[in-house]
Automatic annotation (TrEMBL):
Sequence intervals crossing the membrane: 30-56, 68-88, 100-120
InterPro entries per record: Bact_Sigma-Reg (IPR052016), PPM-type-like_dom_sf (IPR036457), PPM-type_phosphatase-like_dom (IPR001932)
GO MF term set: phosphatase activity
UniProt-recorded name of the protein: Serine phosphatase RsbU (Regulator of sigma subunit)
Keywords: Hydrolase, Membrane, Transmembrane, Transmembrane helix
Any Pfam family matching the protein: SpoIIE
Domain PPM-type phosphatase: 152-366
Length: 376
């Protein structure tokens, strides 16, 4: 996974993304033949005065971009053959200009074959890297259940700022325990592999503590202890933890994280701000008191959206932040995941380019009211 952090790998992946469609690939594979055909036609029509023979070297040069070794070599041979045919046709075969052109084509062909071999080797390496990244994502951010108990619908969306890595410093998890359904959504300070490693520590500690600890405060304490052992310097993790015990409320502990957005069944929306500001996880030595849990209403038909700051801090070309509250109507669809996907698509349209920060969203929907009305 260290390769994901290299500038060379990221640049090459962006190149692969730009030419990755099969249609574009086929066009690039035909381009060398088109170029050589155009050069040959013009030279045949214009005679020796045109001086276009050196342009035949463009064939093998273009072939190195998308063709394999055999095809690149074949393009070079065809270019050399065309040079000989045109030289005979124009009666300049062994002239200095034609000889220099043939040497140039031969040199470009050799260089193109070597470049093609290097490109293919990088493609194989990147395919392996992507496989590792996908496996790491499945372990670190494993799929959440679509339902948490009989009444709670769950949907999740994750967009990594490092598209080729597919994972980053944002984290989420939903766990059904003997103490209720417990949820965490967090954001690791920093980026790159170090942030991924920290997210793995938090998720591992949460998955274990969520089952062991009777109180949500105990889960927070376990996370704090795990991060104290692992973090160095001034790193920290903002997080919001929630617990649902089957009633009409959610117990929330907010550790320096953006507050969840609540959408009630009547169409109202508001942000569940914590009554007291709490420091992020990993800053336990600076805390005077432990984070205080607070209660958020969660009646039948209500929804609660947890998100990271990559959502609300996403800017468009004019520098305007994403207006999450005014886009909440997109979450009114019948399917929670479909609704959240619509919100994510709207976020990406607002930005109009790759996100500058990871963006994670987790939606909880109290389905009892919807299901009972559908049954009726």
């Amino acid at each position: 996974m260290a390769s994901l952090g290299s500038t060379r790998t990221r640049a090459f992946l962006r190149l692969l993304t730009s030419i990755g469609t099969s249609k574009t690939q086929e066009t690039l594979k035909l381009l060398p033949f088109v170029v050589m055909a155009v050069v040959a036609f013009i030279d045949f029509a214009s005679g020796p005065t045109a001086g276009l023979l050196p342009l035949l070297a463009l064939g093998p040069a273009f072939a190195s971009v998308a063709c394999g070794l055999a095809r690149t070599t074949a393009v070079g041979v065809i270019a050399l053959a065309l040079c000989v045919v045109l030289g005979v046709y124009n009666d300049i075969l062994w002239s200095p200009r034609t000889n220099i052109t043939m040497i140039a084509i031969l040199g470009v062909t050799v260089a193109s074959v070597l470049a093609s071999a290097g490109r293919l080797r990088h493609e194989r390496q990147l395919a392996d890297v992507r496989s590792v990244a996908e496996a790491a994502q499945r372990v670190l951010l494993r799929p959440v259940p679509r339902r948490a108990g009989p009444e709670i619908g769950v949907a999740v969306s994750y967009t990594s700022a490092t598209a080729e890595a597919r994972i980053g410093g944002d984290l989420y998890e939903v766990v059904t325990t003997p103490h209720g359904v417990r949820v965490i959504v967090g954001d690791v300070q920093g980026k790159g592999l170090e942030a991924v490693e920290t997210a793995a520590v938090v998720l591992g500690a949460f998955r274990e503590a969520a089952h062991d600890e009777r109180r949500l405060q105990g889960v927070v304490a376990r996370l704090e202890n795990a991060l104290t052992r692992e973090l160095s310097g001034e790193q920290f993790v903002t997080a919001v933890l929630a617990e649902i015990n089957g009633g009409s409320t959610i117990t929330v502990i907010n550790c320096g994280h953006p507050p969840p957005m609540v959408l009630d069944a009547e169409g109202g929306r508001w942000f569940a701000e914590p009554p007291d500001e709490a420091l992020p996880l990993g800053m336990g030595s600076l805390k005077a008191v432990d984070p205080v849990p607070y209660i958020v209403p969660f009646e039948p038909g209500d929804q609660v959206l947890f998100y990271t700051d990559g959502v609300i801090e996403a800017r468009d070309g004019s520098g305007r932040f994403y207006p999450l509250a005014t886009r909440a109507h997109l979450l009114s669809g019948d399917d929670p995941q479909g609704s959240l996907d619509a919100l994510r698509a709207d976020l990406l349209r607002h930005v109009g380019r790759p996100l500058g920060d990871d963006a994670a969203m987790l939606l909880l929907r109290h389905r009892a009211a919807r299901e009972s009305s559908s049954a009726a």
